[in-house]
Amino acid sequence: MTRDMHEWLREGLGVTTFCPGCGHGIIMGAVLRAVAGLGLDMDRVLFVSGIGCAAWIPSPHFRADTLHTLHGRAVAYAVGAKLARPDLEVIVVSGDGDLSSIGGNHLIHAARRGHDLAVVCANNQIYGMTGGQTASTTPLGDRTATAPDGNAYPPFDIVDLVMAAGATYAARWPVSRPRMLARSIQEAIQCRGMGYVEAISPCPTQYGRRNRHETVPALFDHVDSLCVAREDAAGMTADERRARFVTGEWRRG
Amino acid sequence: MKKPEKSADPRPDPVFVMGNVAAAEGAIHAGCRFYAGYPITPSSEIMEHMAVRLPAAGGVFVQMEDEIASISAAIGASWAGLRSMTATSGPGLSLMMEGIGYAAWTETPIVIIDVQRAGPCTGQATHVGGGDVMQVRYGSHGDYHPIALAPWSVQEMHDLTVRAFDLAERFRVPAFLLADEGVGHLRETARLDPGPAVAGRDSRKGLPPFGTDDPAGVPPMPCFGEGERLLVTGSTHDEWGWRKVDSPAVHARQVDRINRKVEDRRDEIVEVDARLLDDAEIAVVAYGFTARAALAAVRAARAGGTRAGLLRLKTLWPFPDREVKDLAARVKRIVVPEMNRGQVADLVRLHGRCDVIHHGQTDGRVIDAETIERLIREARP
Fold it and tell me: In terms of CB atoms within 10 Å, which of A48, A111, A127, A251 comes out highest?
């Protein structure tokens, strides 16, 4: 984190709780740069998160109101806060399991109703905090603590999910594209209705070591190699797309 | 027909109204400005009435995707500064339990109306039940102490809803109106008096929002958007909200305080309604809709020469333990009729040293006065 970001962090913080090589620190920076770039008053910004590694990106780090809620419920708490105080900028930052598995119902219904929320999903394709179990985003065939022979079920495409449900804007980038992430988070904050930004975040501790990505750079390279631009994915079959991370931006027509 | 003369009573004229609607009016009168809910019989009239009344009162109504989302949104709105509530019945209450624990641990004022129906499970959705007494007390994991009030009339559906908001805001706890289908769907006259304004939460800024020097204190609660940069978490936290998930001292202190803030001040909360007890040798302890039949039974028993009386529990949590203990010291026997298999009778046995006769009726019907009168007669020494 660069020095100019310190004013956005709470005083009295030591190191973060993220593992070495975790992509979540980059997401933390991208969210703060987005907020700073828009010139938002942090006293009018509320960050809401659920449970898991990603939920600790805003709480306790961000020097704003932070609501660290229950597993899967971040969006539902955010809906209540936003309806009660429409003048606040409400930004949800949470993980893939939190938002799309245990909290999937809240995510799609908030998108459908069009609540004016920005949702940032740190997608590491696994349950990190609890020890590396299969998530609803784990790629087909990849190994986890609960899929020792490889995951038998295909992953969700959460961008497709929220866009189909009624989100206004969605974007997906790997954390190796921090500027694209920050720019998309700004658009998600500024658009009316739900803006969803997914950051593909490598998890060396739980995901990398189970899937033979021996080093952090190797895992980052692996994630990047799976990324395919939306335009280039147009000719792919659904199964081919599901094996990749389709990156880019989506806007409701 | 002659028009009745204008009464000198300053209260609003009585209206003929359903209990659930009276409760919704009570919420509006208590300053509730946020409702999030999900339809469920037999509580839906509360939600439908709030959908009409809240926007007109400048509040926010939202129908959520389920009960988990409903209580979550209500808690979020409470931290955003609005008096918030939801209403449900047993199956929905089961889903709300994690949010109730979150409200207890983060000390979030919230009112939950539970219009009980006949359980377990989906049970008999349109029929009366009383099986949630222990669920509202112990339903979420860990140690916490919610407040629960039990109305017996349409008037109390209104008045105790107002009181539930007062207590929730003052003590920063989830407060329940533990109603049942009997009072919820009852139609009778009541005065829906806006009354004096409900005391709000202590919203002073700059102080620790999760700790007090008093080991049983209620800290002030500022809200989001005031520059306080609040740190709210469902993990164990110190007085400023910092996660302290490895500190035995912090965890013990916080668990102790969130329970003691209710228990040490139980006299400010507990209310009972004593009827015909001065010379009674047989007492009926009852609550909710059942207490109506109990009063009729007590009167009938007295007409037949039995000195019977009624202790009606208006507060169920914190439990009126001292009131029951005092009663047991004065009477020969206590009869407890209730629409469950002894959830309150066991507590009466725990706190009262006298014979306790329990009548638990779990057939989805209300307990009638004749049944209770027979129990009183049989209880005679």
Answer: A48
Residue ranges covered by each domain of chain B = 15-190, 273-379
CA distance A170 to A188: 7
Q: Do B290 and B129 contact (CB within 8 A), yes or no? A: no
Fold match, B15-190 / B273-379 = yes
What confidence category does residue B311 fall into, taking pLDDT thresholds of 50, 70 and 90?
Answer: very high
Cβ <8 Å between A83 and B84: no
Q: Which amino acid is at B181?
A: E
Lay out the sheet containing B308-313: strands in order across.
B272-275, B308-313, B282-286, B333-338, B355-360
CA A18 – CA A51 distance, rounded (Å): 14
Q: Rounded to 5 degrees, what are φ and ψ at B311?
A: -110, 110
How far away is chain B from the Cα of A76, in angstroms, using its nearest Cα? 5
Q: In the structure encoding, which two tokens stand for residue A101, read together?
A: 């598995």
**Mean pLDDT over the full length of chain B:** 97
Which tens digit of pLDDT belongs to each residue from B10-26?
Answer: 889 999 999 999 999 99
**Hunting for tokens 């105790």 — which residue is that?**
B160
Instruction: Check: CB of residue A109 under 8 Å from CB of residue A73.
Output: no
Higher pLDDT, A172 or A14: A172
User: Helix-strand-coil percent breakdown of chain B, rounded to 5?
Assistant: 35, 20, 40
**Which residue reads 């559906």 in tokens?**
B157
List CB contacts (< 8 A) between A46 and chain B: 80, 224-225
pLDDT of residue B5: 64
- Enter the CATH code of domain B15-190: 3.40.50.970
CATH number at A18-251: 3.40.50.970
Question: Is 0.95 surpassed by the pTM of this model?
Answer: yes
To the question of domain B273-379 being in CATH 3.30.300.30, the answer is: no
Residue written as token pair 């495409």: A157
H or E, element range at B295: helix B290-303
Band the pLDDT of A26: cuts 50, 70, 90: very high
Instruction: State residue B11's pLDDT score.
Output: 84
How close, in Å, is residue B206 to chain A by CA atoms? 14
